[in-house]
Automatic annotation (TrEMBL):
This is MBL fold metallo-hydrolase. Pfam families: Lactamase_B. SMART domains: Lactamase_B. Residues 22-215 form the Metallo-beta-lactamase domain. InterPro entries: Metallo-B-lactamas (IPR001279), NDM-1-like (IPR050855), RibonucZ/Hydroxyglut_hydro (IPR036866).
């Protein structure tokens, strides 16, 4: 296995380092060989996502599902390429569906000066992608034994994290980063920075054995406690 293309996280689950550990996508494989891809990085990351399939002994015809945590160009940018190569449409939380279909980022936080500036500059920020349907909070997807949708809005209206229940692997998306330690995402990139903080408690309400981040390396040692401690320090978790 080409370990520089994929990082094993748990049985049937891999991380795809798309720009070192800083931008990540993920692969999940069913026992019958069906493959699900989750987040596809920036536009130039599409071929790297496809190369990762070969690293686990799979190919484009094995891909049966494409998922996105949210409709930002560093997550959805490579999705158009992957959709063309696999012939599959994307699934994303229903509140981000129209943004994915039109290739436009959700609004930035208007309470922040930089957020207002980014809003004015953001025009057609990634190639539109075909969307099969919108996901809803709490839905259990038939992916590799069960992938739970956890709506964690704030970074975008439809931002979702995902819990792979059989292995306890939590993909946080951009609800929280692990870049030089656990931290919040960049405030001005959020639709509502306050809501991002207010909904992060959902990450520790589910039991997980490994926390995987779309920005930063995974946490394998007591990840739930590490995130809990961070939220306590930040004043966003009671008890």
């Amino acid at each position: 296995m080409a370990r520089d293309l994929v990082v094993p996280l748990a049985p049937g689950v891999w991380r795809i380092p798309l720009l070192g550990d800083f931008f990540n996508g993920f692969v999940l494989r069913d026992d019958d060989g069906q493959v699900t891809l989750l987040d596809m990085g920036v536009a130039r990351s599409g071929p790297k996502v496809m190369a990762a399939l070969g690293a686990i002994g799979a190919g484009p015809s094995d891909v049966t599902r494409l998922l996105l945590t949210h409709a930002h160009p560093d997550h959805a940018g490579g999705a158009a390429h992957v959709a063309r190569e696999t012939g599959r449409s994307v699934e994303i939380h229903e509140d981000d569906v129209e943004h994915a279909r039109t290739g436009t980022s959700p609004p930035r936080d208007r309470s922040l000066r930089l957020g207002r500036l980014l809003d004015r500059l953001a025009k057609g920020s990634f190639d539109p992608v075909p969307v099969e349907r919108g996901l809803v909070d709490g839905e259990l997807l038939d992916v590799a034994g069960g992938l739970r949708v956890i709506h964690t809005p704030g970074h975008s209206p439809g931002h979702a994290s995902f819990l792979h229940e059989p292995t306890g692997t939590l993909v946080t998306g951009d609800a929280i980063f692990n870049v030089r330690g656990v931290r919040w995402p960049v405030a001005s990139f959020c639709t509502s920075y306050a809501m991002t903080k207010a909904t992060a408690h959902r990450l520790v309400e589910v039991d997980h054995a490994l926390a995987a981040f779309t920005h930063g390396p995974e946490l394998r040692d007591r990840p739930r406690q590490t995130i809990t401690d961070f939220l306590h320090r930040e004043g966003h978790l009671e008890g």
